[in-house]
């Protein structure tokens, strides 16, 4: 009830529009798709989002903590730095109170609560919320909602990759386990073969 409008944004290939339609079916009011076939790296995405933040002037920018393709965990922090906005990462609870937002995040020793002035950038943890179910009527309504498509060139952002992936390799396969007759045999194997004790 604190937001007057929710805008979903995705950067990438044409298939991103399916994700944006799902976001609108869940409750977003409109969507923006930054269409590009270039491999987007965290800095490029942050620059694209910065251009959209400058244009839309949101009160709160909420991003996932890391992408599922590269697990970089960089875009939110880069966006906050580029836009010169306060940030909170790994949010497990967000409460908006006037011009402030209180963000609870899990740390090694328990919970930490930060108070940020808005506008702000927040990256979310898995435990922040449970998404609504997508219903058929909302899927039909989402088809009528506004979905704008822009290109990086229209936003004035250069997205040429700066990093080159030299090699990707799977981790070594795990060896089969070994059964031992008794504790003495286990200790002997740990000491002489595994060399962990």
Walk me through the structure.
This protein has a five-stranded mixed sheet, with helices on one face. It has a three-stranded parallel sheet with strand order 1-2-8, sandwiched between helices. It has one domain: HUPs (Rossmann fold), CATH 3.40.50. The chain is extended. The mean pLDDT is 90. It is of the alpha/beta class and 197 residues long. It contains six helices and eight strands; from the N terminus they run E-H-E-H-E-H-E-E-E-E-H-E-H-H.
Attribute tags:
alpha/beta, 197 residues, 29% helix, Rossmann fold, extended, five-stranded mixed beta sheet, 6 helices
List the helices and strands and how they pair.
Blueprint: E1 7-12, H1 16-26, E2 30-35, H2 42-56, E3 60-64, H3 75-83, E4 87-97, E5 100-107, E6 110-117, E7 120-124, H4 136-144, E8 147-150, H5 152-155, H6 183-192
Parallel strand pairs: 1-2, 2-8, 3-7, 4-7
Antiparallel strand pairs: 4-5, 5-6
Helix pairs in contact: 1-4, 2-3
Q: What count of structural domains? A: 1
Number of strands: 8
Q: How can the largest sheet be summarized?
A: 5 strands, mixed
Widest beta sheet: strand line-up: 3-7-4-5-6
What is the CATH superfamily?
A: HUPs
Q: Measured on Cα atoms, how large is the radius of gyration?
A: 22 Å
Low-pLDDT runs of 5+ residues are none
CATH topology: Rossmann fold
Name of the level-1 CATH class: Alpha Beta
| Apparent shape | extended
**What's the architecture in CATH terms?**
3-Layer(aba) Sandwich
Number of helices: 6
Measured distance between first and last alpha carbons: 58 Å
Measured as a percent range, the helix fraction is: 25-40%
Summarize model confidence as the mean pLDDT: 90
Q: What structural category do the secondary elements indicate? A: alpha/beta
| Range of strand content | 25-35%
Give helix and strand order, one letter per element, not per position. Answer: EHEHEHEEEEHEHH
